Amino acid sequence: MPINVLVISKYTDYHSTRPEASIFHGLAKKGFQIYVMTRRDSAHAEEFEKSGIKVIDFHPTQKFARKESQFIRTFIKEHHIDILHLFNGKAIMNGLRAARGLDVKVVLYRGYAGNINWWDPTAYLKFLHPRADAIFCNSKGVEEYLRSKMLCKKEKAITINKGHDVSWYEGTRAANVHQLFNLPQDAFVLVNIANNRRMKGIPYLLKAMNNLPQEANIHLLLIGRDMDNKENRSILNQSPNAHKVHFPGFRDDVLEIVAGSDLFVLPSIKGESITKSVIESMSLETPALITDIPGNRELLEHNVSGVVVRAKNSDDLTHAILALSQDKARCQELGKNAKKYIAKRLNHVRTIQQTAALYQRLYAEKKAP
Questions:
Q1: Could you tell me the CA-to-CA distances from 169 to 47, 297, 298 in Å, in that order?
Q2: Its pTM surpasses 0.90
Q3: Which residues form the domain of 210?
Q4: Nearest CA to 258 among 224, 209, 208?
């Protein structure tokens, strides 16, 4: 008998959810019976069905919805679900209620290191809920954070990285970023892809740009929503390098832009697991400069497949950017090693194997006398 798995997740955008979706394609090939509750017009629905995955046109719309919890509960009972895997807040809140008293193992996903405390009653509605049997953490940093907040059964939190397949990026054509953004043809181009949030540490990167020598031909592309805001602009005021920072906003061609840039810079200060945009950059052989926060520091080997500097330290960022801009051969070597690192250490095959092992262990516990 196959292990029956019910996944509840959103697959609105094809590209951003591809690593997660690939897990279930792989598990279906291994003989698991996978059911996915998501909107039928979701980006991966058709491909799921081609893999033999049954798609249920449903996703919770509220965190506390009795009818939605009951729908999930009925499905679990009628389809003899062994593993319930929940990937977002609404899925978790309703799924945990649905599983109450049923013989099903519940797995939660966590991709952020923060905002959970043992003294917060709301934490026991999600990640500290006693009904959760395992928490799939997207980085060791997330696992360590969760374990520090758990009063018992800390082994529930385990690390399984959402791996990528470097072949997904082989058809990406590098954009001519100098022409696209009207940059000097010999400029060294930095890129950051993110929506502006405090955890991303963008002010430290802007201060690093301010600190660069005025004659340094280094330009920065800040791509994403809300980058061109008052706070960021105020940091650049009176800076002789202000004209070298560009705010293209949200774009659909980010992979092409990253492939055409010289260096990806992520100055995060907290909360990250393994950042998807960095993995994409490394898969495209664009080297990454990142900070040493838990989670992100698992992404690469310092000075082998990228560069790691101290978080909240604009001087470190300035020095690293300047050194790399003056040694393009080193950047190219770091980029090639970065792709190899992803292919070996953060690949999707490894993720599928680890997830299968988790499900098999939970299933064995479920069937144990």
A1: 19, 23, 21
A2: yes
A3: 167-346
A4: 224
